Amino acid sequence: MATYGYTRSLRLLSSREFQHVFDNACFKVHGKGLLALACANDLDHVRAGMVFGKKSMRRAVDRNRLKRLTRESIRLRQHWLPAVDIVVISKRGVADLDSETLQRQLDGMWRRLEQDVKRKNRKVSPA
Asked: From the centroid of its chain, how far is CA 23?
């Protein structure tokens, strides 16, 4: 039975880990108001971090809602997301999205990320 917890092992914790993703982002996935940068990791699971600044969302309640929805989306899809480190960045206008639209955006971003990783792996290892 698969577990669906959101443990520390699923998170990017240090600034060094975040900087590694920013410097070596092999994948960029855009959504309305969101950007996800990702790079491959040597683990067998996804890890994620979030950067939601005051510039894109003034109110703390909006930033916290976005963090909560993003964490929940990753937690529920952790078993089929590829083994990459992801940093989700907010852009202006994301605070205007309702929860349902935001959830659809995140689902679409994870699907595109999975397709991009599969496509790159096919190019790297011809079989």
From this structure: 16
Contact 52, 67 (CB under 8 A): yes
Helices 60-77 and 99-124: crossing angle in degrees, nearest 10, is: 50
Among 49, 50, 47, 37, which residue's Cα sits nearest to residue 116?
Answer: 37
Distance between CA atoms of residues 70 and 81, nearest Å: 14
Alpha-carbon distance of 41 to 8, in angstroms, equals: 16
34-53: b (≥16 Cβ within 10 Å) or e:
bbbbbbebeeeebbbbbebe
Q: How far apart are CA 27 and CA 112, in angstroms?
A: 10
* Per-residue pLDDT reduced to its tens digit, 58-115: 899 999 999 999 999 998 888 888 889 999 999 988 888 899 999 999 999 999 999 9
pTM of the model: 0.87
Give which of 44, 39, 45, 46 is closest to 20, Cα–Cα.
Answer: 39
